[in-house]
């Protein structure tokens, strides 16, 4: 299942009643910008939502920007890190924005299309060294448009990125075999978008970062959007926390920077959305409109995902397009960080959400909900104390009704869970007790309900966004391993 499809299934359409709660000043929460009477409900709701997420440990720090023709308002809650003396986050805090970088890459591509130096149907092979034999399928070549729409047939990544270099990348491409014809299927690909970024920078004869600066960030006065950070920048950089509440260090990819290498702030991304909405008139607007257009391949949408409340989700040049709700958006997700930008061009409304926790499902959900309250907000649960001996009872391996497995390990006063299918094995993530039988996850909107029958056998029912799966315990571990430090 593609990352986009997994994310898409997390959303359900239903109405959420507005609440008239005037919480305009909460400790650790800040916002700025003029407020009119029609906006009071939304503003107070956002403050309350952020406070709940911080208070219940869903986020360490989170920043939201809401952009409209009447101005931009910023909201922030929490800190750069868990350290006691850590500064509070604000609209100038820096975050790695991961895959949101991709819509900068596709905007660069659109600029090249506008000046006719590149064409959508140009073959990628023509812009790579002659020593590189770019993958084909039955003599069908990959085009630049297919790189920009995740329809090239290339995989997500070429294996391990950490020690990768350009030569290893080219060796990978020389030996990789496509599983389908380019342009026929959507498959999210960091590799494809990263290669597009490389092609664009080579075509301009400059580094990817300099190309972004000259073409996008300098014209839009986005001084915080960059790849290489100064020592002063690093003082404003948030610290990431992963799905087991551990601090993580973010290491940049040595190559494929167009897929996810940029850092930015809520302030800078608000400027980017102002330009995409046409609120701020810039010379980039025609190219931006080109990226917003739904792309089709061989007469079909590049993406056609079916999930409750959304009839069609397509892709533009890098952007996800929800045609039913009139929302264009992109997210970013790496261990320790999650990000979202999106807008409704009809309402002239834009939203930025940046967080230093890796629960992208909740980050996307908040951004989409602000843009359209019909997309219901996920609940936030509170952790309760239970007897730790219960965690020993629930530890073990469970076979799920769909053929996959869950593995639970007791770690201090919580359970660490891992989901295993034929296609992938997830990283461990924490689940937390609401009661002695009910646990919840802060990564996905999921609730586990455990049951012990009279014979002592253990099972659970997983309720995830309205769908249920049952599982039975098939293995109990012997003396558990020591806990990791929390």
Written description of the protein model:
The chain is of the alpha+beta class and 486 residues long. The chain folds into 3 domains: 3-103 and 207-371, DD-peptidase/beta-lactamase superfamily (Beta-lactamase), CATH 3.40.710; 108-203, no CATH class; 389-475, Lipocalin, CATH 2.40.128. Helix content is 24%, strand content 23%. The chain has helices spanning 3-8, 40-55, 101-114, 144-148, 166-175, 190-204, 208-217, 231-234, 266-277, 285-292, 360-371, 389-394, and strands at residues 29-32, 61-68, 71-78, 95-96, 240-241, 247-248, 263-264, 296-297, 300-301, 313-315, 320-322, 327-334, 337-344, 349-355, 396-400, 405-411, 414-420, 429-433, 438-441, 446-452, 458-464, 467-475. The strands form 5 sheets. It has an 8-stranded antiparallel β-sheet, sandwiched between helices. A hairpin with a 4-residue loop joins strand 10 (313-315) and strand 11 (320-322). Helix 3 (101-114) packs across helix 7 (208-217) and helix 3 packs across helix 10 (285-292). The protein is globular and about 70 Å long. The two termini are 32 Å apart.
Keywords:
486 residues; Beta-lactamase; Lipocalin; eight-stranded antiparallel beta sheet; eight-stranded antiparallel β-barrel; 22 strands; globular
């Amino acid at each position: 299942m593609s990352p986009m499809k997994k994310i898409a299934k997390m959303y359900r359409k239903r109405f959420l009643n507005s609440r008239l709660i005037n919480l305009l000043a909460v400790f650790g929460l800040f916002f700025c910008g003029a407020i009119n009477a029609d906006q009071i409900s939304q503003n107070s709701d956002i403050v309350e939502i952020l406070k709940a997420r911080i208070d219940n440990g869903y986020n360490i720090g989170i920043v939201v920007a809401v952009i409209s023709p009447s101005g931009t308002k910023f909201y922030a809650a929490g800190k750069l890190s868990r350290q006691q003396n850590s500064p509070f986050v604000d609209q100038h805090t820096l975050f790695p924005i991961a895959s949101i970088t991709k819509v900068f890459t596709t905007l660069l591509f659109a600029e090249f299309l506008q000046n006719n130096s590149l064409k959508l149907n140009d073959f990628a092979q023509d812009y790579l060294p002659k020593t590189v034999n770019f993958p084909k399928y039955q003599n069908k070549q990959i085009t630049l448009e297919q790189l920009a729409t995740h329809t090239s047939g290339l995989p997500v990544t070429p294996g391990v990125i950490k020690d990768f270099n350009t030569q290893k990348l080219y060796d990978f491409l020389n030996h990789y075999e496509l599983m389908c014809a380019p342009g026929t299927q959507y498959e999210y690909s960091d590799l494809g978008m990263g290669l597009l970024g490389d092609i664009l920078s080579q075509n301009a004869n400059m580094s990817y970062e300099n190309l972004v600066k000259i073409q996008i960030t300098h014209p839009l006065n986005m001084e915080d959007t960059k790849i290489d950070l100064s020592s002063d920048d690093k003082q404003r950089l948030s610290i990431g926390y992963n799905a087991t509440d551990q601090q993580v260090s973010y290491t940049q990819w040595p190559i494929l920077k167009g897929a996810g290498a940029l850092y930015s702030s809520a302030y800078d991304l608000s400027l980017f959305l102002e330009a995409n909405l046409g609120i701020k008139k810039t010379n980039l607007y025609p190219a931006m409109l080109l990226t917003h257009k739904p792309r089709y391949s061989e007469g079909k949408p590049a993406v056609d995902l079916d999930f409750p409340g959304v009839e069609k989700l397509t892709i533009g040049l890098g952007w996800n397009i929800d045609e039913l709700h009139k929302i264009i958006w992109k997210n970013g997700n790496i261990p320790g960080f999650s990000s979202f930008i999106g807008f409704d061009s009809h309402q002239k409304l834009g939203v930025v959400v940046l967080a230093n926790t890796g629960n992208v499902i909740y980050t996307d959900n908040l951004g989409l909900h602000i843009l359209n309250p019909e997309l219901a907000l996920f609940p936030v649960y509170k952790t309760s104390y239970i007897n730790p001996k219960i965690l020993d009872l629930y530890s073990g391996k469970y076979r799920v009704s769909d053929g996959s497995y869950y593995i639970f390990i007791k770690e201090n006063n919580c359970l660490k869970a891992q989901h295993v299918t034929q296609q992938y094995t997830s990283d461990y993530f924490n689940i937390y007790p609401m009661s002695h039988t009910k646990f919840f996850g802060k990564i996905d909107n999921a609730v586990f309900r455990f049951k012990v029958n009279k014979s002592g056998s253990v099972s659970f029912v997983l309720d995830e966004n309205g769908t249920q799966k049952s599982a039975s315990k098939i293995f109990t571990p012997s003396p558990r391993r020591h806990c990791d430090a929390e």
